[in-house]
Structure formats: C-alpha cells, structure tokens
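Q: What does the predicted 3D structure of Glutamine--fructose-6-phosphate transaminase (Isomerizing) look like?
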Amino acid sequence: EKGGYPHFMLKEIFEQPSTLKDCIRGRVAEKGRRIIISGVMDNAEKFLNAKRVVIVACGTSWHAGLLGKYLIQDMCRIPVEVEYASEFRYSNPVLDERDIVIAISQSGETADTLAAINIAKSMGAFVYGISNVVGSSIPRETDSGTYIHVGPEIGVASTKAFTGQVMVLTLLAAAIAQLKGTKSPEEIEEIGKTVNKIPSYVEKVLKLNDKIERLSLIYTYARNFLYLGRGYSYPVALEGALKLKEISYIHAEGYPAAEMKHGPIALIDAEMPSVIIAPNDHLYEKIVNNVQQVKARGGSIIAIVTEGDTVIRNIADHVLEVPEVPECLSPIITSIPLQLLSYYIAINKGKDVDMPRNLAKSVTVE
Ligand code: M6R
C-alpha cells in the first residue's frame, strides 16, 4: 500500500508528478491557450460581479489560501482576504451577495471550515469549495467548487494536497482572469503552457532527494529554524515551517523575510539556521539583502534558488536549485524540497512521520 516507500509521506511526496497531472487533466485546453474550470464557467456572473473574495481554511490549506490571495489579486484584480476559519467564524464577519467565499480543505470535513461556510451562506455570499475528498461535507455544503483530484492523502502532514490546492488556485485565478479579461490571451497561454510542464519540473525537483537527505544530517539537532520568503515565497516559508514543526517537533517560524529587521533578527546566531526561499522573481534583489543580513549575524543558510543562480550561491551555506518557472507557479516547485527536508530531519530523529503525536488527519471537532 505504501508502493515500496517506507512511509506514506515519502510516497505522497514522490507521487506529485502524477497527482499534479491528475489535477491538471481536462483543465488546460488548446495547447495551453484555454483554462477550463467548470465552476467558474457555470457561475460566470458571480465571478464577473464579485467585489471581494474571502478565503477561509486551516493549517496547510490556509497557506494555500494565502497563495490564492496573491494569485487572484494579481491575475484578476479582485481584493482578497484570507482568514483562519476558526477566527472567521467568531469574528462577526461582514459579507453580502457580491462576496465570494472560497473554502479550502483537503479532507472536506474540517469543523471550523464547515462552520465558516455555513455563516457565509447564511449571509448570502456565494461559497466555492476546493477539496480533495469527493462527496465529503464541504463539497456538499458549497454552491460550487473544484476538486484537486490528488488521490487519498494518508500522511498527516499534507504534501500532495498542498501542491494540488495551489495548482487549482492558479487555474482558478487564470480562469477568472480569462473571463474578466484582466490577463491577455498571451499571458494566459504562458500560464497554461507552463502548467502543462509542471509535472516534469516536479520530477526534476525530486532528484534533489539524495542531496537533501545528506543535508538533513547536518541540521537534525537544531532546536529552532527560521523559514524566510517574500511575495509568492512567503506562504511557502510558512508551509515549510509548519511541515518541520508537525513531524520533527523542532520549533520553526515562517516569516516574511523583510519583517526580520522588526524583531526576529535578534534571534539569529550560529545555532539558528534559516531556510530562505529565493527563486529568481521580481523580489530576488530584495531577498539577496535579507540573505546577507542573516549571514552577517553568523546564521547558517539553506537557500532554495533557481538553477544557475550565482549570487546567493556565494553567500548561503547550502543551495538547492530548482527549475525556473513564472513566479506565480514557483510555490509548487519551491515547496517540494522543504517537504523532503522535514521528512528526513524527522526520520533522523526517529519520529513517526505519518502519525505525528497529538495530531489527526482530519480535525472534525473545534
Ligand atoms: O483537511 P483540511 O485541509 O481542512 O485540514 C486542515 C489542516 O488540519 C491541515 O492542513 C493540517 O494543518 C496538516 N496536518 C498540515 O500538514
């Protein structure tokens, strides 16, 4: 059942080229020129008239939601808010018929997310679900939605569901942009064509496995980690930190890299490694500064960079190179080395990666 892998988590990490293929299937047509998300086409009026999108989710799904904000704002020019479902439900939210609420949940059964959906519906918002489990409560309770179709995820730490959620959010944003005309046909085609190549890029990233396994040995006994990123890499930093915490029980914090100087930089010393997500995007020059700031304080750095990077290579202690993609698609690529890093650190510590202590795969109580 684990397909020859020692743990479900590793199996699910390695499945991503094929789960992403399943997730994309039927959604990119005409050689990349058209994006087809039926939930958008069937509700075109709702999406054309939306004055705001509110995303609700928990945990890893909330991190995907934060990426959804960047994607939808950037491509569709609709303001987006992202809320923890547990906070949203008790926050006396302000919503009406022109709001679209997107609920993201792998299991489709998370109690707080379901409660948030019910509130949104009672206030007249249009509720859209992004889920993995066909026929689960969230797809049943929402007005429309999209399945991520990545197959059953057994490991408690979400891996293939996260990349599937981010892929669906990218396609959803592109489909809305196509409908609204906020992206040109050429821009849509660039996204569509790259989406089709993502499974093969992911295949390539997975070749970092042995290097990451070796690297993990150096960091197994660190007590704290910082994960830093900017723009599309900021939610990836949060997700990388969560993954390390939940399976290795090492304290890790994800932070927007430029917020460092407002406090956390005080923590940096030789005992505090930083994982810096620094692909070649429009914030690259900015994050180079942050890398230098960490180095100047004696911190060790593992950097995720784009193939061929020359600047950060000379500053960081270790670099993991990933293929170049347009920045809106980079989170799918840059999150994968972080999944492997947490996996190997947890394994080195002898932890049960598939069933970490105190956690359940689906949180059906509040
Ligand atoms: O099933 P859901 O996506 O609603 O679950 C939400 C969180 O409980 C979940 O993502 C959790 O944070 C994972 N264990 C993270 O790996």
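A (community wiki): The structure tokens above were generated from the sequence. The chain has a mean pLDDT of 97. The first helix runs from residue 8 to 14.
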